[in-house]
Amino acid sequence: MVSAGEFRKGMTVEIDGQVWVIVDFQHVKPGKGAAFVRTKIKNVVSGNVLERTFNPTEKFPKAHIDRKEMQYLYSDGELYYFMDTETYEQLPLNHDKVEDALPYITENMNVTIKFFKGEAFSVEPPNFVELTITETEPGFKGDTATAGNKPAIMETGAKIMVPLFIDTGDKIRIDTRTGEYMERV
């Protein structure tokens, strides 16, 4: 059991018989009245997102989530196919279960797939990925002296902000948890 006061991002709990992942939380201590926890929770099966408040002492059972490393193979337009690297079984997943990871994954990349009671509900890319820039504005001489950023489009279609000295064709490392540029590789 976990109390609402112990909620953290990414934690999975059972609320009203359904499994929810904590997307965001905030401990609020108003000047008058009791403290409460304001949360944004996402249903792991249906994908519904709710905003709810809880008393910090409310307790909920922690949901057991299985994680398995699998390799992303390809997409046929509707389904995304992943392969178990131990048994070589393929697992097709719908877009809604993969969409959060899509900006950061390429074919043949290993990802973590989360399961609840044997059913896959989410794909997690590695914390750091290396992707190639397919489109960005050219930098100008002297731009490296200022700490400016410009938009860049990655090979996966993701748009991130990069320093001005980065050019089209450069390979960069991205932190997938924040979506931020880390370094040029």
From TrEMBL:
<dbReference type="InterPro" id="IPR020599">
    <property type="entry name" value="Transl_elong_fac_P/YeiP"/>
</dbReference>
<protein>
    <recommendedName>
        <fullName>Elongation factor P</fullName>
    </recommendedName>
</protein>
<keyword id="KW-0648">Protein biosynthesis</keyword>
<comment type="function">
    <text>Involved in peptide bond synthesis. Stimulates efficient translation and peptide-bond synthesis on native or reconstituted 70S ribosomes in vitro. Probably functions indirectly by altering the affinity of the ribosome for aminoacyl-tRNA, thus increasing their reactivity as acceptors for peptidyl transferase.</text>
</comment>
<feature type="domain" description="Translation elongation factor P/YeiP central">
    <location>
        <begin position="67"/>
        <end position="121"/>
    </location>
</feature>
<dbReference type="InterPro" id="IPR013852">
    <property type="entry name" value="Transl_elong_P/YeiP_CS"/>
</dbReference>
<dbReference type="InterPro" id="IPR014722">
    <property type="entry name" value="Rib_uL2_dom2"/>
</dbReference>
<dbReference type="InterPro" id="IPR011768">
    <property type="entry name" value="Transl_elongation_fac_P"/>
</dbReference>
<dbReference type="GO" id="GO:0003746">
    <property type="term" value="F:translation elongation factor activity"/>
</dbReference>
<dbReference type="InterPro" id="IPR013185">
    <property type="entry name" value="Transl_elong_KOW-like"/>
</dbReference>
<feature type="domain" description="Elongation factor P C-terminal">
    <location>
        <begin position="129"/>
        <end position="184"/>
    </location>
</feature>
<dbReference type="Pfam" id="PF01132">
    <property type="entry name" value="EFP"/>
</dbReference>
<dbReference type="InterPro" id="IPR012340">
    <property type="entry name" value="NA-bd_OB-fold"/>
</dbReference>
<dbReference type="Pfam" id="PF09285">
    <property type="entry name" value="Elong-fact-P_C"/>
</dbReference>
<comment type="similarity">
    <text>Belongs to the elongation factor P family.</text>
</comment>
<dbReference type="InterPro" id="IPR015365">
    <property type="entry name" value="Elong-fact-P_C"/>
</dbReference>
<dbReference type="Pfam" id="PF08207">
    <property type="entry name" value="EFP_N"/>
</dbReference>
<dbReference type="InterPro" id="IPR008991">
    <property type="entry name" value="Translation_prot_SH3-like_sf"/>
</dbReference>
<comment type="pathway">
    <text>Protein biosynthesis; polypeptide chain elongation.</text>
</comment>
<keyword id="KW-0963">Cytoplasm</keyword>
<keyword id="KW-0251">Elongation factor</keyword>
<dbReference type="InterPro" id="IPR001059">
    <property type="entry name" value="Transl_elong_P/YeiP_cen"/>
</dbReference>
